[in-house]
């Protein structure tokens, strides 16, 4: 089971923040740089997302609605149900982080990779991940404001303004400028990917430095971390089962079920960390801990599932052409009707 090298970098950043947290003027500089990094991230998200590809993907609307429902309805419902685990398994701050985790959009890269390995519907996974990220720009802050209330960093008019300025405005600017900078972004995808990841590391360092300075880590014991891991393992298992068998009950074909399972059961670390820094402010360090642990867990488990799915027998599906003639196709997506 793989360990994402980027997770090691994130853990190293957390360790650096624990040993050498930003204080005083350094903290102000790090906070300003983190704010700029978040704006840059969402500007690049907007510049990368092809509006034409998104509109083309709407043709497979049943699949995308299913993934969005899993991401922004089923996940949050399970997160709200986990409230009953406080204070036995989770502290209130850890629960807030767990609930925030359930509000984050799905991943794109890993969903596509695992769907490809499992011989699933890769174009559908690309569109589903893109739609989830696009919807999450608006849905995640709104859901957080509704479900987390005052505990999520004190939502107020100022918080809404910060969300709009740091997330929505840069994203919209990227979309508007895509016509002129889209080709540049595509040509330098690898370099800009490093900028993405470096920006997220800066956000993590700033958030965890603030947590260390304020002493929030004294609130987390090894037993609480163990309880959090157990809760997240159950959450992931439930979503993997629901996405697979729920898609089967909805009469999706094998390739589409694979795309739904991998896109509908994941949460994006890249999107969640910057959002948490805006939504939670100084309390972001504990808020992102559940997301970081869940991210690594989902990679390890889904890697095993994808390899097993790749060994499944090929599924034959009977479809009808516009003239009403029936034919058998191998490994098709959604069954008609």
Describe this structure in words.
73% of the residues lie in helices and 3% in strands. By secondary structure, the chain is mostly helical. A hairpin with a 5-residue loop joins strand 1 (316-320) and strand 2 (326-330).
Short descriptors:
13 helices, 337 residues, two-stranded antiparallel ribbon, 73% helix, 3% strand, mainly alpha
Radius of gyration: 20 Å
What's the number of helices?
13
> Would you report the number of β strands?
2
Shape: globular
Percentage of residues in strands: under 5%
**Low-confidence spans: pLDDT under 50, at least 5 residues?**
318-322, 331-337
Please provide the ordered H/E string of secondary-structure elements: HHHHHHHHHHHHHEE
Average residue-wise pLDDT: 81
Strand order of the largest sheet: 1-2
N- to C-terminal distance: 39 Å
Largest sheet: 2 strands, antiparallel
What can be said about this structure in brief?
This protein is mostly helical and 337 residues long. The chain has helices at 5-19, 24-48, 51-57, 61-81, 92-101, 109-117, 122-147, 157-187, 189-214, 222-249, 254-264, 269-280, 284-309; strands at residues 316-320, 326-330.
What's the topology here?
Blueprint: H1 5-19, H2 24-48, H3 51-57, H4 61-81, H5 92-101, H6 109-117, H7 122-147, H8 157-187, H9 189-214, H10 222-249, H11 254-264, H12 269-280, H13 284-309, E1 316-320, E2 326-330
Antiparallel strand pairs: 1-2
